[in-house]
Amino acid sequence: MIVDNWRDPVDAVVVGMGPGGEEVAGRLADAGLDVVGVDQRLLGGECPYYGCIPSKAMVRAADLLAEAWRVPGMAGTCMVEPSWAPVARHVREATADWSDKAAVDRFTARGGRFLRGRGRITGPGEVTVEDESGREIVIRPRRAIVLGTGSEPAVPPIPGLAGTPFWTNREAVAAEEVPRSLAVLGGGAVGLELAQVFARFGADVTVVEAAPRLLPAEEPEAGELLLRVLTEAGLTVHLGSLAAAVGHDGSAFTVDTDRGDRVTAERLLVATGRRVDVEGTGLAALGLGDASGLHAVPADDRMRVLPPLGSRPGVWAIGDAVGRGAFTHVAMAQADVAVRGILGEGGPPWSDRATPRVTFTEPEVGAVGLTEHQAVEQGLQVRTGTADLRSGARGRLHGPGGDGFVKVVADTAAGTLVGATAAGPAGAGGEMVSALTLAVHARVPVSDLARVTWAFPTFHRTIAEAVKMVL
């Protein structure tokens, strides 16, 4: 093993160049610091290559098919023949055929330097990078180490699964053709988005979810709505079913559940969450104790793992690695807090009180803050209001596919919303939740929200109906 010491001055090392890491490294470089960015995968992270961008291109294509199928009875006649080839081509274009050359050039043009390799902390103020040739490069930055190491698809230890050609989201977005049948393990956001996409392009799709409802982290009403819509569209859903064994005979998968069901499919998508490789960050080298039992990197609301001390650089962590929401917008917001801390600029700390999240199915589900169950668990005095989207003019005008609702969760003692969910067609869920996010973030009194004038006829007017119920 060849070990080299990085001899040029370095102010900061950013390990993990996903959206948050790239933001930190770029802004520090803009500020005149000598910055080294490190990543063993593609600069830009999961979002532009395997997550948000390519999957939403697929979702958009599938939504176009669904809209065309609704033309009869609403606007005339229409014949649609699904074709995956243009979708695969669009995904390749959106991801630059899974090349990060443009991203690397963009970062180095700002003055940063990029190392392709696996970076880890190997001592106080020390990062070691193992590059593609196996050479180890030791870097000792003067001001900051930032961990933005992201997360990986979590693959459960199901007997028979290891060694089979199963998909995660990474293989699914790179698919060159639609399988005849697809089994999906996991009824969360990723699993349902991709399940609906492939079903609309002709796959026979079965979803297996261990929890008693779909979208188990969200309001029960959201899971119930999607269960009805998906099953009406021909998908098969097994709830409360844990995959107990997986088999693959070279041409098809079998999934046996603990309830005695057997699912057979050409392809298997594992969408059972994500995991953070905390041990791989090298936290133990900082003297913080055994990291083997940690599921995330411990960081405070200033994103600090260790504050600067004397000649020792500080250590910050952002994004998926800190376990406070695996979303690009969370990583970017935390990146801003970390940059301000490194540069000594102060400003507000990170808060997850009003973090929005969107499941890009149809109906689309947007949510912010606490669910009703979470609010009750925290001991809040809770009142909820739920209004059906179809009760408003826009819902009735929308016709088929106009399903949805708005649910608000109010803390009656404070007189403000602490959470909300909006579900609706044509992107309505994610768009409606923006107004609700502002209300939760700014702690707008419910009495003020009740006096807001909402445009008619819009989906947003349903918010007013839900708010009236918690006054």
Automatic annotation (TrEMBL):
FAD binds at K56, G119, T149, G150, S151, D320. GO terms for molecular function: flavin adenine dinucleotide binding; NAD(P)H dehydrogenase (quinone) activity. Keywords: FAD, Flavoprotein, NAD, Nucleotide-binding. It holds the Pfam family Pyr_redox_dim. Its cofactor is FAD. Residues 11-335 form the FAD/NAD(P)-binding domain. Residues 355-466 form the Pyridine nucleotide-disulphide oxidoreductase dimerisation domain. The keyword Nucleotide-binding applies. Disulfide bonds join C47-C52. Gene3D superfamilies: 3.30.390.30, FAD/NAD(P)-binding domain. Binds 1 FAD per subunit. Signal peptide: none annotated. NAD(+) binds at G186, G187, G188, A189, V190, G191, L192, E193, E209, G273. Belongs to the class-I pyridine nucleotide-disulfide oxidoreductase family. This is Pyridine nucleotide-disulfide oxidoreductase. It comes from Mangrovactinospora gilvigrisea.
